[in-house]
Each structure stands twice: as structure tokens, then as C-alpha cells.
């Protein structure tokens, strides 16, 4: 907050917004920091705390250089944006098959090991074809509602486990949530979950280690040209390669096991789960496998880290927990219960939105412009990488009243006290936007709402420590969150 007040990001006037499209200055005139010969601004990054603090580093740059600047970080040159009007321009010009930035270490790895990957790694016509098949399946509410009872069941098991922790202290929140979200995604994707999986504690332990290695490995790689690191087989590359291969192997094994457990193809059973729907589309098994394996990887990390932030914020705000508790009581006492009450708790929805605004797991949205265009009044050549700084715009006072504070009510459109608390919702885009926006958004939101809907009536949460955000591929906590829970009487 203090840093914001000292150096507010320059405001973009209405006139300037209009001018963005009217005139175009050369690319080289985009503000840029002064760097040293050869190493550029590398020392600045290291001084600021390295790649794990990159969100803060970029935040400071925006205060210094404004809502648009260009900078080469490591081997990647990009134009950085922190303004909803500029985001809008990027999405307007992203084309029919938008190109996000694919992490280079993963591209090298895919090529080296001849891995064909899922939707996120696809481009052009191939991406468009699979996206058209997957979008309606993942957005279909029937797919979700079919599993509600099972979701409740998985949530109850996690909460039962928490109820029996010693002194009510949850010490492995990240691992517990990861396991929970893998289980609910298995239900949706392959409609199979049994005792064997609940018992597979190894999965959680292995995965926790893998996430950690993969993050450390690729974080170290981002300052090194990955192609060079791979060619020289440097320690950082080997670390990344080992952990990434283990993660892929695990996701593939899981998908393979799930495919084997699936009942034989039944033409009348198309809505049962995503995999059987894909089989209905006559998709070959190897394609189903790579797509579903990548969905597991994309789904479990993002939802578990976000839920960790939500629980942490709620634990710091007992008054919000109580508000949710009373909203749930109210909905449950209503005579018009229809079984989807979990969808109608405004403070749960607001809490998830606030956690994603303050701690967006996808801290930067990326697009590679395919044609020459004008953004922010500057000429942008084809193949320029645009990085949208979600962390910075989500905490900007111009778009959110008391932007540094956790205020779930600000998102309640029908509430009495939200007037003027969200000036521009486009400044917080935690699921991205446009044609390549997150395909799992509805699924992720529902699963997070259901867990909170089950948890808050049972417990109150209290945070035993303070955590900060660091980048480990995703925006996550710098140390394990220690939650103490008490059973509500
Ligand atoms: C809190 C949870 C989640 C967050 C914050 C999140 C965020 C994002 C973001 C920011 C993108 C890039 C969007 C863009 O560039 O415009 C994305 C893409 C994607 N997400 Fe999610 N996601 C979440 C959960 C999920 C889940 C549950 C799934 C799968 C079931 C999923 C699957 C994907 C896939 C496949 C893509 C690539 C889409 C494409 O390229 O067409 N995500 N997500």
C-alpha cells in the first residue's frame, strides 16, 4: 500500500484511451528501464529477490515507468501491461487462434521426449478443433450436477480427517487440498473413485515433492536460456527435467488407470464423464490420454493453491467466516431448497474472487501478437510477447476501493454496501479472457464453493502464521500455512 501511495501508476486519461487506436508511436519509444551491457536488468531482478519475487519487481517497474513498458528479463523480451483498457486492446486483437506464451523449458522437454501434450500446448487449427470439443463438455452444468453427491462425499472425508488432527492444527494444507482436488477432478473427468485411491497416500507425498522440484527447476531456468541449459545438461535443467517427467508420468499413469476402470463404451451414456464424452466424439485413446492428463495437471495445482489462499484469508477474517455461516443457515432454512444451495452464498463467491484478485495464481496473462497492431498508442510488431500484470492491476486503487484489503462484499452486486468498490472488474482477470480463457473455470469455481459450503458450518479457522506470495510457477505461499480449526458448537 505504502509503495502505491509513494509512486502511483500514472493514470490513463480518457483522451489517451481514445488515442491508443488513433495514433501510433514507434515500438522503441515504449518506456524501458536502463540496463547494463550484456546482462541488461538481471542485477535488478536478483537484487529484488529473484524470480520468486517477480510480481513485486514488475509492480515496482509499473510505478516507475507507467502502465506500459518493455523489458528483457533473462532471455525473454516482453511488453508489460497493467491497465484494463490495454488488456481489452490485446484481447480484441488476439485473433481466431490466440497464442499464449508456452514455457520454453516445457517445449524443449516435450520435443526431447517426443511428448504430445494437451490443450494448453496446442496451437492453430489443432487447438481450435479440440477446444471446440472440450468447451461445451467442461461448461455443461449437467456434467457437474451429476456428481454433486460424490463431491459432498469427498469434501466430508477431508473435513472428517481435519476434525481428527491433533490440537486442530492443519500442517499439510497444501498437500491435503491437492489430494482433494485430484479426487474431485477424477470424478468429473473419468467418473471413477474408489477406496484404493483414498488410501493412496503416496500420491500426495510424491506430488508435493514434484510440484516443489518442478517449480524450483523452472524458476532457476527462467533466468538462464533453457536451450543452453539443456544443451550443457546443467544442474538446473536436470532438476527440471527429472521433476517434470515425474509429474507427467504420474498424470499419465492416473489417466491410464482411470481409462482402464471405465466401463465399456456405451452410446447412451455420453454425459457420464468427460472421458466417455470424448469417446463418443470418436477421439482416439492416445489423444484422450494426453488431453485428460494435462487437464489433471492444469486443474489440481490452480484450484488447490487458490483454495489455500481463500482459507488463509478467511482465517484472518473471522467476521467473514461468520457472515458465510449465517448466509448458509439462511439458504438451508429456505423452503425453496433445490439442491444447489452452495451456488447461492454471496460471501463464498466474493471470498474466492477476492483471493484471486489479491493472489492470482496466474500472475501474468500472456499473448503473442500474431499481426502488427497498435496497443497503448505504440506500434507492436508481429510476434511481440505481451504480458498482462494481473497482480498489479488487481491491487490498483483506481479499479478497486481499498485495493489491498480483503472485502468479499465488493463483488456482491445486489448487496447494500458495494457501491463503488469495484470500478473496473476487467482489472482482475484470474481466469484470463477471450478465446483462450480458462476452460475449467466453472468446474474450479464450483468445486471451491462446495468445499467452503461444507467446511464453514463445521469449523472456524484461525491462521497461526503470516504468509506472503512468492512465484513458484504459480503465485503461492512462501511457507506452509498453519491453520488451527475449532469445531463449531
Ligand atoms: C482456480 C483455478 C484456476 C485458475 C485460476 C485458472 C487460470 C487459468 C488461466 C489464467 C488460464 C490462461 C487463460 C488465458 O490465457 O486467457 C488458464 C488456461 C487453462 N486452464 Fe485454467 N485455471 C484454473 C482451473 C482450471 C481447471 C479446474 C482446469 C481443468 C479442468 C483448467 C484447465 C485449463 C486449460 C486446459 C487451459 C488452457 C486453455 C486453452 O489454451 O485453450 N484450469 N487457466
UniProtKB/TrEMBL annotation:
Pfam families: p450. Its cofactor is heme. Heme binds at residue 438. The lineage of its organism: Eukaryota, Metazoa, Ecdysozoa, Arthropoda, Crustacea. Keywords: Heme, Iron, Metal-binding, Monooxygenase, Oxidoreductase. It comes from the Eukaryota. This is Sad, putative ecdysteroid 2-hydroxylase, ecdysone biosynthesis. Belongs to the cytochrome P450 family. InterPro entries: CYP11_CYP27_families, Cyt_P450, Cyt_P450_CS, Cyt_P450_E_grp-I, Cyt_P450_sf. GO terms for molecular function: heme binding; iron ion binding; monooxygenase activity; oxidoreductase activity, acting on paired donors, with incorporation or reduction of molecular oxygen. It comes from Daphnia pulex (Water flea). PANTHER family: CYTOCHROME P450 (PTHR24279:SF120).
Amino acid at each position: 500500500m505504502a509503495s502505491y501511495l509513494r509512486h502511483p501508476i500514472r493514470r490513463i486519461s480518457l483522451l489517451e484511451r481514445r488515442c491508443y487506436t488513433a495514433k501510433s508511436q514507434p515500438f522503441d519509444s515504449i518506456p524501458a528501464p536502463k540496463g547494463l551491457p550484456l546482462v541488461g536488468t538481471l542485477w535488478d531482478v536478483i537484487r529484488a529477490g529473484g524470480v520468486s519475487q517477480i510480481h513485486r519487481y514488475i509492480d515496482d517497474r509499473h510505478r516507475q515507468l507507467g502502465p506500459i513498458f518493455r523489458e528483457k528479463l533473462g532471455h525473454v523480451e516482453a511488453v508489460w501491461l497493467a491497465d484494463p483498457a490495454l488488456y481489452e486492446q490485446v484481447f480484441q486483437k488476439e485473433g481466431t487462434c490466440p497464442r499464449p506464451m508456452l514455457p520454453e523449458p516445457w517445449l524443449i522437454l516435450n520435443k526431447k521426449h517426443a511428448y504430445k501434450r494437451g490443450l494448453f500446448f496446442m496451437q492453430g487449427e489443432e487447438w481450435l478443433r479440440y477446444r471446440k470439443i472440450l468447451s461445451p463438455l467442461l461448461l455443461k452444468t449437467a456434467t457437474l450436477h451429476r456428481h454433486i453427491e460424490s463431491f459432498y462425499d469427498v469434501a466430508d472425508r477431508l473435513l472428517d480427517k481435519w476434525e481428527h488432527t491433533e490440537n486442530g492444527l492443519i500442517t499439510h494444507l497444501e498437500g491435503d487440498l491437492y489430494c482433494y482436488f485430484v479426487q474431485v477432478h477424477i470424478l468429473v473427468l473419468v467418473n471413477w473413485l474408489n477406496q484404493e485411491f483414498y488410501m493412496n497416500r503416496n500420491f500426495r507425498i510424491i506430488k508435493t515433492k514434484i510440484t516443489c522440484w518442478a517449480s524450483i527447476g523452472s524458476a532457476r531456468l527462467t533466468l538462464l536460456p533453457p536451450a543452453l541449459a539443456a544443451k550443457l545438461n546443467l544442474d538446473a535443467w536436470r532438476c527440471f527435467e527429472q521433476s517434470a517427467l515425474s509429474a507427467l508420468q504420474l498424470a499419465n499413469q492416473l489417466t491410464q488407470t482411470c481409462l482402464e476402470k471405465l466401463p465399456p463404451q456405451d452410446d447412451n451414456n455420453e454425459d457420464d464423464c468427460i472421458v466417455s464424452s470424448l469417446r463418443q466424439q470418436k477421439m482416439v485413446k492416445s489423444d484422450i490420454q494426453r488431453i485428460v492428463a494435462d487437464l489433471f495437471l492444469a486443474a489440481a495445482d490452480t484450484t488447490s493453491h487458490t483454495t489455500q489462499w481463500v482459507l488463509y484469508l478467511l482465517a484472518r477474517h473471522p467476521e467473514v467466516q461468520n457472515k458465510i455461516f449465517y448466509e448458509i443457515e439462511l439458504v438451508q432454512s429456505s423452503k425453496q431448497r433445490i439442491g444447489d444451495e452452495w451456488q447461492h452464498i454471496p460471501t463464498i463467491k466474493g471470498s474466492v474472487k477476492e483471493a484471486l484478485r489479491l493472489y492470482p495464481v496466474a500472475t501474468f496473462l500472456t499473448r503473442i501478437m500474431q499481426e502488427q497492431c497498435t496497443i497503448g498508442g505504440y506500434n507492436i510488431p508481429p510476434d511481440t510477447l505481451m504480458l498482462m500484470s494481473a497482480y498489479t492491476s488487481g491491487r490498483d486503487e483506481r479499479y478497486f476501493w481499498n485495493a489491498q484489503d480483503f472485502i468479499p462484499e465488493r463483488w456482491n452486486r445486489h448487496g447494500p454496501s458495494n457501491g463503488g468498490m469495484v470500478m473496473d472488474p476487467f482489472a482482475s482477470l484470474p481466469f484470463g479472457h477471450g478465446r483462450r480463457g480458462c476452460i475449467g473455470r466453472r468446474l474450479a469455481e464450483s468445486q471451491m464453493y462446495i468445499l467452503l459450503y461444507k467446511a464453514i458450518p463445521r469449523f472456524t479457522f484461525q491462521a497461526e502464521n503470516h504468509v506472503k506470495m512468492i512465484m513458484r510457477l504459480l503465485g503461492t505461499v512462501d511457507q506452509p500455512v498453519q491453520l488451527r480449526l475449532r469445531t463449531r458448537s
